[in-house]
Design a protein that fits this description.
single chain, 26 helices, mainly alpha
């Protein structure tokens, strides 16, 4: 393709109709207006305004932001792709997140907000020592680079290549440029409030795709006739390579604890909340929103039923294939806007959080005489560095044999278990010392790296064949228990140091003014969580259990199966349009 043809394709959005192109332009213009308005209202005059939105963001905005930051293009592509390849079981990742979000709200948020921190590594410095903060800062930046930023860019490029015909590398550069502009302008506040818009567009668009998909395939009964029964099982046998039921029940929450409760990208949203109660309400709201991505699993099933040969070659194309081949003119543009929304929401979250980590935890330590404006500029410049570094990792992801979503989860299980164990003990017990936490964190991550290298990271000839069928969820469970065993052994041999360690903890707590107002963290939780928030939290847990039992027991009881197939409404729908 010549440069002139490429330029013309960009201007005209490839083969899209005028209506589709206008839909995309309206979305981009709205995004720009929201960014400029938020920047005008909140600004980025100092580090708190730029990195935490002035710590004054309401619960509904934080909840939408948690949802949109998580459900990026990698999820749109990855969940639909895994749904096409293996069925509904991958949706358990989404539903397990609902109750892990409650752990974030009721266990971690009180600790984080009481210290008034900017970053999660900063909490480790308060709780333990400075080397923990430095180490975890780099772990957080690298984990975001390898499992969030690069994967999100790759997923967005796959979609645009399928729908618009643009090359993956050109798509990556274009998307990085669009996202970098509005992320740098407004900081976290701009990211959060644009994610409110993006969440709404995402939910509406995915619902429309599901409608047209079920209409084309003949309703839920049509899916059951065209696909094997195993595609409708939420709980797979214990020997399943990717989603065995013990791994789903016990292994997924371990990864969730790291992702939702200790990862800067997610936690930064609740750090921007007005209060503990606001953060808890946001977590409950986000938990309810996390019940909806099962729509994406259904989209994957529809793609497998309608285009089995295409899905056999590359299931990662499931979502994009449905958009390009199934939707009528007008809706294609809307769905591309949906995909742009998810891409930019996830990428902007990563960029802003990583720039916060580098600026507040590294640069501010290197140059203690910094000004507030200097911190903002450094954060903006580091975003550019991340974008360039992300491009270097794309060939590795492109050559992965896994479905995209499975690749993401397998990478995360390298470090999630020891991090989850250390943070849980740090919040719930004073007996864990700095030395114990350091040994557990560094040793546990080293074990995870060795496992990943031997299983899939090394060239094929150097891998251990015996580890290939070993499910990464089972490894996460073993890794989690190993981390707690290390903590227990180290604590046992540090009995003589416990008195000094407790004095250090007490000193740290005394230095935090907000802790002087409370007698225990339990009382803080009860004081900040209102009755309605508690009721909705309990209702969420009940809903997750009921849905899991309902769908896991009999696929015929699936809620979509009980609906009248959309094709029976075809005449009414045509009249309405």
């Amino acid at each position: 393709m010549s440069p002139g043809d490429l330029f013309w394709d960009v201007i005209t959005f490839g083969h899209l109709s005028t209506v589709d192109a206008v839909s995309i332009l309206i979305y981009l213009a709205t995004l720009l207006l929201v960014t400029l308005y938020v920047n005008y209202k909140v600004g980025g005059a100092d580090s708190e305004a730029y990195f935490l939105g002035g710590r004054d963001i309401p619960w509904w905005a934080v909840g939408f932001s948690l949802f949109a930051s998580n459900l990026g293009t990698d999820h749109l592509v990855g969940l639909a792709g895994s749904g096409a390849a293996q069925g509904l079981a991958v949706g358990c990742w989404e539903w397990s997140a609902s109750y892990v979000l409650l752990v974030l709200g009721w266990v971690f948020v009180p600790h984080y907000l009481e210290y008034g921190i900017y970053t999660v590594p900063e909490y480790l410095e308060h709780r333990f020592e400075s080397r923990m903060r430095k180490f975890f800062t780099w772990v957080s930046i690298l984990s975001a680079l390898f499992t969030k930023i690069a994967v999100t860019i790759f997923a967005g490029a796959v979609v645009l290549n399928e729908v618009l015909g643009w090359s993956k590398w050109f798509s990556s550069v274009l998307l990085l440029t669009l996202t970098g502009v509005y992320t740098s302008i407004g900081g976290l506040a701009a990211v959060v409030y644009t994610e409110v818009l993006q969440s709404i567009v995402l939910l509406v668009g995915c619902t429309a795709l599901l409608w047209y998909g079920l209409d084309a395939v003949g309703g839920w009964k049509g899916l059951e006739e065209k696909l094997p029964a195993s595609h409708f099982d939420l709980m797979k046998p214990a020997n399943h390579q990717d989603f065995p039921w013990p791994g789903v029940v016990f292994g997924m929450p371990i990864s969730g604890l790291w992702y939702w409760c200790t990862d800067q990208v997610m936690v930064q949203r609740v750090l921007s909340a007005k209060s503990v109660g606001t953060g808890q309400s946001a977590c409950v709201f986000a938990g309810w929103l996390k019940l909806t991505p099962m729509f994406l699993m259904a989209a994957g099933l529809i793609a497998a039923a309608l285009y089995p040969e295409d899905m056999e070659r590359d299931s990662n194309r499931a979502f994009a294939v449905l958009v390009s081949r199934l939707l009528p003119p007008g809706w294609q543009g809307a769905m591309i806007a949906v995909m742009l929304s998810s891409f930019m929401a996830a990428l902007a979250s990563c960029f802003n959080s990583c720039s916060t980590l580098f600026t507040m935890d590294i640069y501010a330590e290197w140059y203690p005489e910094h000004t507030e404006r200097e911190l903002v500029i450094v954060g903006q410049l580091f975003t550019i560095v991340l974008a360039v570094a992300s491009m270097a990792w794309l060939p590795m992801i492109d050559g992965s044999g896994d479905e995209l979503f499975v690749y993401i989860q397998s990478m995360q299980l390298i470090w999630c278990a020891p991090i989850a164990a250390v943070f849980l003990c740090a919040c719930l017990s004073k007996r864990i010392s700095s030395r114990t936490a350091w040994i557990t964190l560094t040793g546990g991550i080293a074990v995870g790296v060795v496992f990943w290298l031997l299983r899939s990271g090394l060239p094929v000839g150097y891998r251990m064949a015996s580890l290939q069928p070993f499910c990464v969820l089972y490894f996460g469970m073993v890794h989690f228990l190993f981390s707690f065993l290390v903590i227990g052994i180290c604590s046992f041999f540090e009995q003589t140091d416990l008195e000094a360690t407790d004095e250090e903890k007490a000193k740290l707590i005394d230095n935090c003014p907000s802790f002087q107002r409370t007698t225990s963290l339990t009382s803080v939780n009860q004081e900040h969580a209102g009755t309605m928030t508690n009721v909705m939290a309990v209702s969420l847990m009940v809903a997750v259990v009921v849905l899991g039992v309902w769908l896991g027991d009999d696929p015929d009881l699936h809620p979509l199966a009980s609906r009248v197939p959309p094709h029976e409404f075809a005449g009414w729908w045509r009249k309405l349009r």
